[in-house]
Amino acid sequence: MKRRLFLKSAMAGSAVATAVGAGLLMPSTVFAASAEFKAMSNKTKASAAGAGAGSFKFKAPKIAENGAVVPMEIDASKMSDVSNISVLVRNNTTPLAASFNLSGAVGFVSTRIKMGKTSKVDALVTAGGHATKVTKEVKVTIGGCGG
Predict the structure, then answer these.
(1) Where would I find the beta strands (DSSP E) of the chain?
(2) Are 114 and 27 contacting, i.e. CB atoms less than 8 angstroms apart?
């Protein structure tokens, strides 16, 4: 297994080195993107702490009998200029369960996600450059037995 990890790392490193050498990937671009991400994170924290960006409805079951299909509904139709709706499951190995980029569409999403175990679920709505978050806890039972 260590040999496979070494080969994967070597291939990834050579791909990055080739991209840097060709001018496709510049360290300044990476750092600028990192700074932009931090700025967006600060906006999200400010929006979540204060009001002003609007609110939306987030429906999720309190108890999900089957973690493979957990229904979620995000209704941000009363918010203007909705550009993205995302669902994050904190205790999943991959927290981002769903992300919908909306362009000129009504801010409403109904979907089913997969949850491995009981977790807090965050619904994020980006509207007008501000992100708003609503969190709910969903208990996943094994076989519907409350486990």
Answers:
(1) 57-59, 63-64, 70-75, 82-89, 96-101, 108-113, 119-127, 130-140
(2) no
What is the percent of the chain where pLDDT is above 90?
Answer: 35
- Please say whether the dihedral angle defined by the alpha carbons of residues 28, 44, 78 and 64, taken in this order, is positive or negative: positive
Note the pLDDT tens digit of each residue in 64-117. Answer: 988 899 999 999 989 888 999 999 999 988 888 999 998 878 899 999 999 989
The per-residue pLDDT of the chain, averaged, comes to 78
Nearest C-alpha neighbor of 109 from the set 94, 95, 97: 97
The SS3 call for residue 92 is coil
- DSSP letter for 72, please: E
Nearest alpha carbon to residue 78 among 125, 144, 25? 125
Write down how long the chain is.
Answer: 147
